[in-house]
DNA sequence: CCTATATGGATGTAAATGCATCTATATGGA
DNA sequence: TCCATATAGATGCATTTACATCCATATAGG
């Protein structure tokens, strides 16, 4: 049992945090297992592809993608490398900023995202959707949104 | 926007899941950064120490700890190795099961947990507690609990 | 008993991550 | 213009994680 020495976090906050960890791990493991079993790349790839697909032809700068996904800079740099090597993402120098990089999704990337979605969707339903009514899911999303910029 | 091709996961479930990922990452990064800045080991160490401290002198079998933390088996095996090497955890063969391992916390482990808690507690408050009333935190915990065994 | 299978846990190897630092370009003063 | 500092992104190196197996003991069925 935590000491509660500084008295700072309420017991309920600690419980919420611990459950956030556990719930996240349980759901994530389930989702990743499904993707992996289907011979598909990890979840992070999907997120990148989706963001880039939404961005359209204009693409996104690395740092924008980074912010959208809450990824560490070095982490994203390497993830994008792998995806570019696999041909799903194209890297081009930014015309506006000599240091910058513009990322766009390729046709192969779009195809991959399309293949991933049904598997991912089923996994989300099983790991998350199943457990909540629509109203509850909304409520959960609302609460969780407070823990970060919300976009 | 997801295709919704199989129609299976409701839009609200997908949103809840995406926010669960983002919220978790945001909070986790904040907490880990605090621990690291204080020269303390990662969060997982705290969880192990806490579970073992709760288990008392009897300790826990590896697989019990594994289940409590939702850790992969090989992952926990190595984490425990590191903690044992650092002197915070003791490994002993199980008297009941020749394959088994009984894990207990050492005095140094207890001391470490005590040093970690104030830092961790503050981080939880800032990353999570701050954003919710007590009732909201309870509500969030309740919803999240449905996503796994709840213990 | 003896064999087949299951279970607890460890481990070799490859991949991903964290951390610190590096290079290159931008930008805001003096 | 020149310098100081900030920002975008990459990278070397150490640590951690994943995946696939492996070893040893347990357990069930014949």
Describe the structure.
Two copies of one chain form a homodimer. Chain A has 151 residues and is mainly alpha-helical. Chain A has six helices and three strands. The first copy, chain A, has a single domain, classed as Arc Repressor Mutant, subunit A (Orthogonal Bundle). Helix content of chain A is 62%, strand content 8%. Chain A has a three-stranded antiparallel sheet. In chain A, a hairpin with a 7-residue loop joins strand 2 and strand 3. In chain A, helix 1 crosses helix 5. The longest helix of chain A is centred in the N-terminal third of the chain and has 27 residues. Chain A is globular, with a radius of gyration of 18 Å. The first copy, chain A, starts with 10 loop residues before the first helix and ends in a 6-residue tail after the last helix. At the A-B interface, helix 1, helix 5 and helix 6 of A face helix 1, helix 5 and helix 6 of B. Chain B binds a DNA duplex (30 and 30 nucleotides) through helix 4.
């Amino acid at each position: 049992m935590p000491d509660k020495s500084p008295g700072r976090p309420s017991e309920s906050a600690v419980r919420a945090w611990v459950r956030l960890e556990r719930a996240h791990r349980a759901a994530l493991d389930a989702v990743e297992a499904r993707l992996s079993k289907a011979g598909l790349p990890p979840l992070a790839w999907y997120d990148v592809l989706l963001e880039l697909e939404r961005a359209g032809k204009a693409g996104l700068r690395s740092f924008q993608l980074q912010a959208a996904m809450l990824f560490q800079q070095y982490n994203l740099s390497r993830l994008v490398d792998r995806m570019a090597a696999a041909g799903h993402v194209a890297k081009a120098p930014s015309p506006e900023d000599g240091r910058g990089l513009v990322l766009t999704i390729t046709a192969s990337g779009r195809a991959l995202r399309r293949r991933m979605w049904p598997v991912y969707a089923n996994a989300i339903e099983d790991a998350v959707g199943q457990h909540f009514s629509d109203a509850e899911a909304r409520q959960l999303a609302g609460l969780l949104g407070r823990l970060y910029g919300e976009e």
